[in-house]
Amino acid sequence: MIIMYHNIKPWGRYLKEYVRMFNLTPDDLKRKILGCGDGPASFNAELTERGGNIISVDPVYFFSADQIRQRIHETYNDIIDQTQKNQDKFIWQEIGSVEELGRIRMSAMEKFLKDFSGGVVQNRYVSGELPFLPFSDKEFDLALCSHLLFLYTKNLSLEFHLKSVEELCRVSNEVRIFPLLDVNADRSPYVEPIINFLRARNRDVEEIKVAYEFQKGGNTMLRIC
């Protein structure tokens, strides 16, 4: 199975995690939302159940639910093993162990998989990828990019990040990106160049502390208006 974001493994998160990662208010959840790079997160399924208006976009949505499930099973043990080896880079408070993390992530991904086929029919899951999204200018009120930009600094170039941020700003009135760390829990060297790039184009951009921290130091998001 091949996806365009090379070396990026599927890993799903719940709506309650999105709320904290992106400082989402009840009013935010009523806006038209784009989840960019959501992968097998249950965010779309849960928000839809609550009457939300959301579209998720990811190259993995080109594949069937069974193919995505296979990819999850192919990569799950590697993710768990890497987390086990790097436990010191995480805060084990709300999630108490690597085993518990695995159960939580698999539960979210199972919820996604149950929703996926119906969501494709409803156009809630769209196959596409940064830096070119299949949407109109300002089609969304709010675009959320979770665990893709900045996290994969070694895999995705600065040029890719710059084009991707421009594209997110094209399709949405507001953009929020989390986290600002790479996979080694170091601040991405791309953060400052991107902030400078945006400010040079008269974008309102700020780094905001959030009520979520699993990676040590990973408790800020970038908000762009």
Instruction: Give start-end ranges of low-pLDDT stretches.
Output: 1-5
H-E string: HEHEHHEEHEHEE
- Our Rg estimate from Cα atoms comes to 16 Å
Q: Give the mean pLDDT.
A: 94
Strands of the largest sheet, in order across it?
Answer: 3-2-1-4-5-7-6
Number of strands: 7
Any idea what the CATH architecture is? Answer: 3-Layer(aba) Sandwich
> What structural category arises from helix and sheet content?
alpha/beta
Tell me the number of helical segments per DSSP (H or I, 4 or more residues long): 6
Tell me the overall shape. Answer: globular
Strand content: 5-15%
Organism: Methanosarcina vacuolata Z-761
Protein name: SAM-dependent methyltransferase
Please describe what this structure looks like.
Helices cover 37% and strands 14% of the residues. It has 225 residues and is of the alpha/beta class. It has one domain (15-224): Vaccinia Virus protein VP39 (Rossmann fold), CATH 3.40.50.150. It has a seven-stranded mixed β-sheet, with helices on both faces. Helix 5 links the parallel strand 4 and strand 5. Helix 3 (65-85) packs antiparallel against helix 4 (98-121). The model is unreliable at 1-5 (pLDDT under 50).
